[in-house]
Amino acid sequence: MILNLPVWTGSSQTTTAALQFPTTRRAFLPVIAATLIGFAMQTSPVSADETTAQHRVLLHGKKGLVVVEPDGSIGWQMDWGGIHDLHLLPNGHILTRQGPATVVEIDPSTKSVVWSYDCGKQGGNAGKRIEVHAFEPLPNGNLMIAESGAQRLIEVDRDGNIVHQIALQVEKPNAHTDTRLVRRLDSGNYLVAHEADGKAREYNRDGDVVWEYEVPMFGKQSARGHGPEAFGNRLLAALRMDNGNTLIASGNGHSVLEVTPDKKIAWEIHQNDLPGIRLAWVTTLQILENGNYVIGNCHAGPGQPILIELEPSTKKVVWRLDRFKDFGNDVSNSLIIDDVELDWLN
């Protein structure tokens, strides 16, 4: 299936782009984790299994936003601070975060911000501690933003007006951990990863929780930290699949779980299930057109891939991005952008 991105077209300053992705709409989950640091202008080749093609990847690393070409070279780079979500708009612009609470649209051809919404100052939040860890362009042209600290989802138009909001249920309130990634479902409901609560919750437009799943601890005790030594259920992302199940990146649970509507685990991988790979903070999830999963492996340390493409039926790793030296240990957001024509790339 070829994906057409949502209708949010971005600012009037457009860049020519033919944006068709070999992935389903629900596949997009550039996922967030702790503050990103990771990029350096290196051109060493991307490690990969010889049975599969390389990918073009948009990600954030230790010096900013970067496009890694299939041959491992850098197609585009922009110095940028830490981010917690990442989208490519139909006009070829990039939607991401600036600072703790501002959502911005970047024109990559000029490397300039052409639109912004500051959740720390707008929408009645002045004086409050607000962090933003998720946002998404909507089919009607508006933008969803998850406001941690305010414990709400807002939908804003391009003039910055809030046109709808949904109060979130948070058991362990904290502006840094109320939410991680949030995605709109085809029904119009929202699927929210509540990091500190360890739960994925689906909200309808009235704010009712219509489905909830607590990520299990699998009989283990929690352990502090961000790397492979840590453990918990601080999930980063949840995607609703075409079969109605939910795919969850468990964060410091070092796992990916496919959960049925009645909360049974239908498929799973854990920290040491993949030969030669140790999962750390599992972040980015993307489902490709071929059904494979792309998994972010943040805080895994040297010698470990930062991205992994997995064939779910066999659990075989068919591609991996090993660029610790270039991009650092904190690459939590990425997006496969194969077969995308963008005039701002070299």
TrEMBL record:
One Pfam family this sequence matches: PQQ_2
Residues annotated as domain Pyrrolo-quinoline quinone repeat: 66-320
PANTHER family: ASST-DOMAIN-CONTAINING PROTEIN (PTHR35340:SF5), PQQ ENZYME REPEAT PROTEIN-RELATED (PTHR35340)
Name the record gives this protein: Pyrrolo-quinoline quinone repeat domain-containing protein
Organism of derivation: Rhodopirellula baltica SH28
